[in-house]
Amino acid sequence: xxxxxxxxxxxxxxxxxxxxxxxxxxxxxxxxxxxxxxxxxxxxxxxxxxxxxxxxxxxxxxxxxxxxxxxxxxxxxxxxxxxxxxxxxxxxxxxxxxxxxxxxxxxxxxxxxxxxxxxxxxxxxxxxxxxxxxxxxxxxxxxxxxxxxxxxxxxxxxxxxxxxxxxxxxxxxxxxxxxxxxxxxxxxxxxxxxxxxxxxxxx
Length: 203
Description:
This protein is mostly helical. Helix content is 67%, strand content 4%.
């Protein structure tokens, strides 16, 4: 049962990023700073950990997870429609995420319906529940990278507007501020280009 909790944790992180899309608070002159968003996310995770440990509310848990995924997808698509987020990278990540849901849900549904039958028949069991978790793990990674990329563009766009507040001749080009790389087939946001741009300024 505990293997389902990691999916809830990843969705909590995803929603946290969605709510902090264009905020980049810096801690100044304070050793600690109370962040109500982080406190709520931790409390929410502990709450669902406790509820799931009781091995009850299974249907509620499943519906809750489905709503978190569906809501995050809608929110991400809505954010993508904003001009500063429209890049082929973001569209690619959203497409991958939605596509991976198909084999994930198929594996889960078939496992629910056929698992006991395959075990009692003594035949080959393809471990569909394990594949459900594999697809969900990859999907969680893609979703988090997608929101990370959109948050980066949101912050860059906000800084661009501040820097060029008096000039309308410099439009924001999101493709110049986002670089996605793939490592063993998994995407991640590449910050090396940004670091290279900062080094000459520091020198």
